[in-house]
Amino acid sequence: MDGWTSKLTESLFSWSQWPSRMATRHVVIGVLLGFSFSITSTSIAVFFQRRKKEHQLQQFTPRPIELRSDEIVSGVSGLIGNTPLVRINSLSDALGVEILGKAEFLNIGGSVKDRVALQMINDAENQGLIRPYTGSRIFEGTVGSTGISIATIARARGYETTIIMPDDVAQEKVKALQALGATVERVRPASIVDKKQYVNLARQRANKFGEADSIDESDPDFKTQTSHAFHSPSDTVLVTKPSHHVEFNTTGSVSFEDDEPDQPRGFFADQFENRSNFDAHYTGTGPEIWRQTNGNLVAFIAGAGTGGTVAGVGQYLKSMNQGVFVAIADPEGSGLYNKVKHGVMFDRREAEGTKRRHQVDTVVEGIGINRLTHNIELALPILDDAFRITDAEAVAMSRYLVKHDGLFLGSSSACNLMACVKLAKQKDWRDGQQIVTILCDSGTRHYSKLWNDEYLRKAEIPIDLSIVEDLLGSPLLP
To answer: What are the TM regions of this chain, as residue ranges (predicted)?
Structure first.
């Protein structure tokens, strides 16, 4: 018994001596140092994140227009820009993210193109290309919205307008243009390589403006006279009378030799190639979105027709945060999806034996193209992905939004929101990430096509809201 007690005593004594005081002290010091280092590292990271956020906030520029109840804006130009960012409740709640739409349909001309039209006309005036109330005429080739925006601002500034457009666009756009006093010429849909394509005809009409006192709208075939036409720095065309000599100085502005101040001129706005298109969104729409989201957005999605919106907004957002994900929503028949995904401007519908009557034959209007414009080239370096949106998906989304949100939007807006849903599902985002897109125009411009059940039936496009409902409830997309 005494032996057992002795062994137990020795064991307890040995245990009390392990570990040694020195080892214990070293362990405690190590733990304290590690804990202190962790706190210090976290504090430093938080400090730099705060400094970065403060730096970004300092870079915000004042809004170009502030609309308050105690202010009076000057004419229609004051009603363009600073549109609200609206949460799409049904989609956001279903996905667990924040899908936010820039409500561009609230601009005075009813679409995002108001910004572009205003920028193009302002830049042309500042460069001395055109002058208000001189009998000058602005020419543009468009599928509708840009023409309406140009006609709206031109009427307020004292210009006449001639709009050339395909003959298959929604009738509502034609009626709006005519109500605004624009001369409207509708032509058959054609490729850009065809001299009778609507953009090419607009350029020709502008060129012909300087040849005579009157414009023969019925004669598309004539020889270009170079004695009275020149190209601006944005690749637009201005026409003067043959007796006047025009040249650019080293600053890019225009000098008119022996020019009369009140001489009427023709101006081809050329939204597809005009840098003003990009600038309108880089200096306006992009900063507005950054400010409205406090720089917290993770992605921006927009369709591309001319490419100015996605290029300008995307470039600005990337300049503020390179991590912002930028993608395009591309309708059927357009080649931009494949250009972004595979580097080749080709669509399966363009394969031999399958080509439809023109390149982008879709119910969606305003976005989709099969050539690279200057503005699209500005967008390509910052595009991270592209989403193909079918006609059936566009129709389903437009009807879904009316049913669940009371939002009556056009086809391009529906495409954009469909792409937002696909992106959220693809990335498996569900923690309130902010995805921003453009709500381009109202559904009131699309009654005869997108909202015409008979038209959709003949085009064999289904009206099926379950397309959206199934996607919202489906697992992560591959």
So the answer is: 27-48
CA-CA distance, 394 to 364, in Å (whole number)? 8
Residue 234 counted as domain residue: no
Judge contact between 111 and 149, C-beta under 8 A: yes
Sheet of 160-166: strand order equals 183-187, 160-166, 137-141, 266-268, 237-239, 229-231
Rounded-to-integer distance, Cα 36 and Cα 345, Å: 56
In CATH, what number is assigned to the domain containing residue 431? 3.40.50.1100
**CA 387 to CA 418: how far, in whole Å?**
9
pLDDT tens-digit profile of 246-304?
444 444 455 544 456 678 999 999 999 999 999 999 999 999 999 999 999 999 999 99
Query: Tell me: the pLDDT tens digits for 393-429?
Result: 999 999 999 999 999 999 999 999 999 999 999 999 9
The answer on pLDDT for 378 being more than 90 is yes
Whether the Cβ atoms of residue 386 and residue 340 lie closer than 8 Å to each other:
yes
- Total domain count for the chain? 1
Which residues are bridge partners to 164 per DSSP? 141, 185
Q: Domain for residue 393, yes or no?
A: yes
- 181, 173 Cβ separation under 8 angstroms: no
With vertex at residue 109, the alpha carbon angle to CA 108 and CA 112, rounded to the nearest 5 degrees, is 100
- The phi, psi pair for 266, rounded to 5°, reads -105, 135
The answer to whether residue 410 sits within a structural domain is: yes
DSSP 3-state of 256:
strand
Run of H or E residues at 103: strand 98-103
For residue range 169-215, what is the model confidence (pLDDT) as tens digits? 888 889 999 999 999 999 988 888 888 899 999 999 988 886 654 44
Average pLDDT over residues 129-145: 91
Quickly list DSSP for 318-353.
Answer: HHH-TT-EEEEEEETT-SHHHHHHHS----GGGSTT
| 341, burial (CB in 10 Å: exposed 0-12, middle 13-18, buried 19+) | middle
Mean of pLDDT values over 133-160: 93
Q: Which domain holds residue 343?
A: 77-106+278-471
Would you say residue 303 lies in a domain? Answer: yes
